[in-house]
Amino acid sequence: MVICGRQGVMREVVLATRNQGKIREITECLRDLDIVIYSLNDFPATSAVKEDGKNFRENALKKARYLADFTGKVALADDSGLEVEALGGKPGVLSARFAGDKASDQDNNKKLLEHLKGFPLGRRGASFRCVLALAEPSGQEIVIEETCQGVILLQERGGEGFGYDPLFFFPPLNKTFAELTREEKNQVSHRGKALRKLKEALRVRGPKPSPQ
Q: Looking at 8-62, which runs of residues are DSSP E strands?
């Protein structure tokens, strides 16, 4: 549980993830809102949601709706992944399990490099895509989508971040996502841009306090 903000009516938001990297990034981006942030780690009885949607939007909404119904709190789900042009948009919605259901980040990165073997940098264009879905127990929803363009390198660089970050080179900063500080990454990443849009939407509309 993380408390953000310093004053005002505290609202409770549950993140539909146990991924510590995502939890850190989302918490950092939302730190100036007056909310109490929980994650799935705070609700061990929640069942895994089968991410069988055809796209990121379907998966994000499915996770957010389930969690809002289960907890009775505002739920925020992120579904994001990597789309590589030379692979026809793959791994896409399968990004987290590209090398198998129990694949590690290293497994997925290794498989991606194998699939791109022989492709020059000029043909390694890729984008990170993020869809955020916020669902309230009342049924109200917000969906936001953002992308970030980059290039998949021939080998990993950097020790920060998670997932495909060590392979995703961001030309404007001449670094991979794994070479950026968390603050730098939040400024330019797909998730960071989506979260800033979400913050503006929440400031205008704001989720209602969860029932006690």
A: 11-15, 35-39
CB distance 74 to 136 below 8 Å: yes
The pTM assigned to this predicted structure is 0.86
pLDDT of residue 165: 97
> Which entry of 52, 69, 79, 165 is annotated as an active-site residue?
79
Per-residue model confidence as pLDDT tens digits over 24-44: 888 988 888 888 999 999 999
Query: Is the residue at 210 inside a domain?
Result: no
Residues 130, 80 contacting (CB under 8 angstroms):
yes
Catalytic residue at 52? no
- Cα(149)–Cα(171) distance, rounded to whole angstroms? 9
- CA nearest neighbour of 175 among 196, 159, 195: 159
- CA proximity to 28, closest of 178, 202, 195, 203: 195
Domain range holding 189?
2-204
In a domain, 211, yes or no: no
Report the domain count for the chain.
Answer: 1
* Ramachandran area for residue 182 (φ above 0: left; ψ -120 to 50: alpha; else beta): alpha
